[in-house]
Amino acid sequence: MPSANIDITECLNQYLAIDNPGYAILIKGEWGCGKTWFINDFIHKSTVATRRLAGKVPNEFIKISLNGINSYEAIDQRLFFALHPRLDGEYTVLLSHLASGIFALAKVDSLLKNFKLRDLTHAIKTKVLVFDDLERCCMPVAETLGYINDFIEKIGLHVILIANEIEIDKIEKAAGNERITKYDMIKEKIIGQRFEVVHEINSVIENFIEKISTQKLRNELKKRNVLIIDIFTKSETNNLRTLFQSLLGFERLWNKLADAQKDSDDVLEKMLIAFLCFKFDIDKARIIPDDIRYIENYRIHQMTKNKNQEEKCFQIEKTFERYSTLNSFYLVLSTSAWANYFDKGYLSKEDIQECIDKSGLMPGVQSPLITLWHWNTIEDDELSRLVEESLDALKTNQIKSPFALLHLAGILIQLSIEGLIETETNDIVKTFLDVIDKLANSSSLEYTKTYALRSGHACWGSLRFQANETNEFQRILKYIVKKLDEIDSSKIDEMANKLPDLILTDLVTFIKIITYDSEETLYTEKPVLCKVDPQKFINSVIQLPNKLKWDPFHALQDRYANIYNRPELVEEISFLQEIAKLTIEYIGSNSGRNSTHQLEGALNRHLKKAINSINHFLNQKKENEL
User: Fold this and answer.
1) Which of 253, 517, 595, 624 could tie 512 with a disulfide, CB 3.0–4.6 Å?
2) Largest CA distance in the chain
């Protein structure tokens, strides 16, 4: 324990041994430094007898929080319930069962209403009063101290105050008090000694770990308390509350692991290191969750061309410089998974399982391609063998997934850049383009949605593509996307033919697939409606019940509401104009009907707005080009 806190303990013992001291003790420190933990620990361990009790009976403490207190009466009530804890419980129950306990409730209310400070004198004259959270009291701090002073002067009690003086000073300055505040003036009359608590990480770490509910994890964390202390110290967080919350947060994540993963020392330790380092730096606002996605760029010592990304790489680099135990190759979870977790606070068990299976930390579960991603940890002969096996699988068309192809391409390009294989990067590109051609021509290339590959954070499962910013990798990526687009084009005619029938057979699905509310994103990525027969489309809308006639046109309005994000859909304006024309013709030939009236409403309220959205986009585009 730091000597400063030993001194505080000794001075408190000395203070409590004095009869009627006539002053209070202040324990101060910033939020999270361990003030409350210190005083709770002191109370728990205190066996010092006051001179008044002849050294036979330990001190009895009454501790209350001033957080949210807004009146003297509220302080009295908290003291009342602290002296009568059983009554406090009964009162709470009575409040929630008012009807059945009305007479007892009235009795307690009567006691509280007539309860005054003088009624405390006999009950608390042998107690030590501890008032926590002074800075969080809603009353002016000078008035609160003036009231507490009655316990010191009129009853002769020992009083210990717990406060964050920095926050009190901010509150006083905000209230218009300048250099010498009201708090400054009154504290000198009431507070006899002031001590600042030094955060005692070595003392509290065991206490924090004991609060972990899972016995197995508790035992593992105890073995690693030195590691936890090291990371916490290097973080310069100096907030014990943050440390405690972080350990509880890690427990929630650890509980999602499979039993075999929980038994792995490697998985536990490396996940703990990554979790704490990222958590502390995010809490200190040194990085944001999205910065974690750029770790691969830092790891391979390649800064991206985009200025914003370069800044993010720099920020995450500082995190790795700060924590010597944090290894960018051993994060257990993928960078995207970590970023999502710290951004949203949740990861599914399935995501975690996949990440750990591909982490290289669980022997026997990863394929050669997964092992090869961790090439920096592989022995020389093993690396050569895996590269040879992977190239053989590539050239014999055993690898058919676009994601797996890009995964291997990135690794080989990176190995070539690092000088670990003799193959030049241009030769690697040529090999992959040839393989992709063969797979596409034989209809063996596995189909996937191209939007997933165009994403700046695309990856193979939980493993981010290596060398993803190089020109060579981008050439392979674009070629795969081109081949998939060709597959998409062959599907569009078939998809377009289905839409008019879908309006009648499954209107809900029709609305979803053309308005970004479906996994079938090809309908919203490509101008599919250009291939739809306008007359068939209108015929289907006409056959809908009157109450549903608006829905297809409403869906079209929603489709183009974000046309700036899908500019390729502007090609569909001819289709929209044609169905508008056909609708107007039908209305003119069938006037006087409710069905026609509904169709006209849908035309004016939704279809015309859809056309206007595209026209507005095209006009703005022309203006920008001038």
Assistant:
1) 517
2) 108
Nearest CA to 249 out of 361, 322, 347 is that of 347
pLDDT digits (tens, 9 = 90+) for 478-503: 999 888 888 777 777 777 888 999 99
Rg of the chain over all Cα atoms, to the nearest angstrom: 35
Query: What are the residues facing 159 on neighbouring strands?
Result: 24, 129
Position 534, amino acid = P
Q: Helix or strand or coil: residue 131? A: strand
pLDDT tens for 522-578 read: 677 778 899 899 999 999 999 999 999 999 999 999 999 888 878 889 999 999 999
DSSP string, 61-129: EEEEE-TT--SHHHHHHHHHHHH-HHHHHHHHHHHHTTTTTHHHHHHHHHHHHT--GGGHHHHHTTEEE
Q: 203-217, 309-323, 455-469 — which one is most confidently predicted on average?
A: 203-217
Record the tokens describing residue 539, joined without a space. Answer: 């015929």
416 pLDDT higher than 90: yes
In eight-state DSSP terms, residue 464 is E
Q: 85-92: long-range contacts (C-beta < 8 A, 24 or more apart)? A: none
Report d(CA 261, CA 257) in Å as an integer. Answer: 6
- Write the pLDDT tens digit of every residue in 69-89: 888 888 877 887 777 665 544
Beta partners for residue 137, in sequence order: none
Task: Note whether 358 and 366 are within 8 A (CB).
Answer: yes
| 484 and 402 Cβ atoms separated by less than 8 Å | yes
Q: Once rounded to an integer, what is the mean pLDDT over residues 276-302?
A: 80
Helix (H) / strand (E) element for 49: namely none
Q: What is the mean pLDDT of residues 515-520?
A: 64
What is the arrangement of strands in the sheet containing 60-65, beginning at the earlier edge strand?
Answer: 60-65, 127-132, 158-163, 24-28, 191-196
**Distance (Å, rounded) from C-alpha 256 to C-alpha 250?**
10
| Contact criterion met (CB below 8 Å) for 532 and 575 | yes
Give the pLDDT score at 14: 81
Do 198 and 2 form a contact (C-beta atoms < 8 A)?
yes
- Do the strands 127-132 and 158-163 form a parallel or antiparallel pair, or are they unpaired? parallel
Distance, in Å, from the CA atom of 620 to the CA atom of 205, rounded to the nearest integer, reads: 61
Please answer whether residues 284 and 237 qualify as being in contact, where contact means their C-beta atoms are separated by less than 8 angstroms: yes
Tell me the three state secondary structure of residue 11.
Answer: helix
CA torsion 364-368-372-373 (nearest 10°) is -70
CA distances from 64 to 83, 85, 122, 405, 535 (A): 11, 12, 18, 64, 78
Is the Cβ–Cβ distance between 29 and 168 less than 8 Å? no
The candidate with the shortest Cα–Cα distance to 325, out of 265, 254, 276, is 276
Lowest-pLDDT choice from 24-38, 451-465, 609-623: 451-465
Region of poorest pLDDT, from 46-50, 397-401, 585-589: 46-50
Query: What's the length of the chain?
Result: 626
Distance CA 109, CA 220 (A): 50
The answer to whether the predicted template modeling score (pTM) of the entire model surpasses 0.85 is: no
